[in-house]
Amino acid sequence: MAADLTGVRVLVTGAGSGIGRAIAGRVAAGGSRTAVADVQGDRAEEVARLIRDKGGDALAITANVADQGDVDRLIAETVSAFGGLDVVVNNAGVGAIGFIESVRDPEIERVFAVNLVGVIRVTRAAASHLKASGRGRIVNIASVEGIRGSGLLPVYSATKAGVIGVTRSNAVELARYGVTVNAVCPGPIQTEMLAPLLADERYREKLIKGVPMRRLGVPEDVAGAVAFFASEEASFITGNVLVIDGGMTVKAL
Ligand SMILES: NC(=O)c1ccc[n+]([C@@H]2O[C@H](COP(=O)([O-])OP(=O)(O)OC[C@H]3O[C@@H](n4cnc5c(N)ncnc54)[C@H](O)[C@@H]3O)[C@@H](O)[C@H]2O)c1
After folding, report:
1. Distance between CA atoms of residues 212 and 219, nearest Å
2. pLDDT by position in tens, the chain (length 253)
């Protein structure tokens, strides 16, 4: 049973594939009006069409969250189409694999621009609309890599730790306007982002062995929690960081 989001105006960034696509589908199934945003416009169009085919209300927007002009247009188009904005899901993100000594400056800048600065810019642009909503919600997609270390993803981990920091700070600031701000930290979820790591069968097996539930997650494992944070039931929950990892981060050995 999807969380009831009837008429709630939701924007999901990076909604063209993987976790964002599942989130868009889930909130739309709960009755939301959904802006499906992605830097890959054809994918956003496809997801929006699938939602509309099921009787939902969806709008596709091509936008790069690392570009300030795109972010301003993204929020303006969403607000103009829906007459306001109630929920922002900051999901767009990119991976960055490589031990610290192999990290190169252009990659540091690219990954920070999308994963952390993108979250800050989208939130900044959306804030006045969320305050006006009366039931504003921000859900940020961080990662278990923001709270623990694998060694292999130092730049990515830094951006996700940053997302957790922004979540907590904004939760305090926006609470007085009735806007909640929460984050989810997925563990390994089977998407295109994880594909390069999963291609190595030994790494895949090691990863699964580290998950007490003995499987990788699927995007739908994350979507339900995001829909809950967006719902009325979660109106007094703010500043939370919810781990969704099959028990991986609490495992001692
Ligand atoms: N897959 C995992 O194991 C995992 C684990 C923890 C957190 N996450 C996070 O979940 C989120 C979604 O990742 P995913 O696994 O679904 O990856 P994915 O690669 O399947 O999807 C990411 C989507 O974001 C879009 N995107 C990338 N850069 C963008 C930009 N600059 N502007 C707008 N859209 C952009 C891509 O086009 C793509 O559609 C990311 O923030 C990621 O860091 C993923």
Report:
1. 18
2. 678 999 999 999 999 999 999 999 999 999 999 999 999 999 999 999 999 999 999 999 999 999 999 999 999 999 999 999 999 999 999 999 999 999 999 999 999 999 999 999 999 999 999 999 999 999 999 999 999 998 999 999 999 999 999 999 999 999 999 999 999 999 999 999 999 999 999 999 999 999 999 999 999 999 999 999 999 999 999 999 999 999 999 998 8
For position 228, which CATH number holds? 3.40.50.720
* The token pair that represents 178 in the structure block: 């009735």
Residue 130 vs residues 10, 111, 139, 148, 181: alpha-carbon distances, Å: 10, 26, 12, 31, 11
Tell me which residue range forms the domain holding 64. 9-187+222-243
Asked if residue 253 is part of any domain, the answer here is no
**Is residue 92 lining ligand 1, measured as CB closer than 6 Å?**
yes
Q: Is the CB of 192 under 6 A from ligand 1?
A: yes
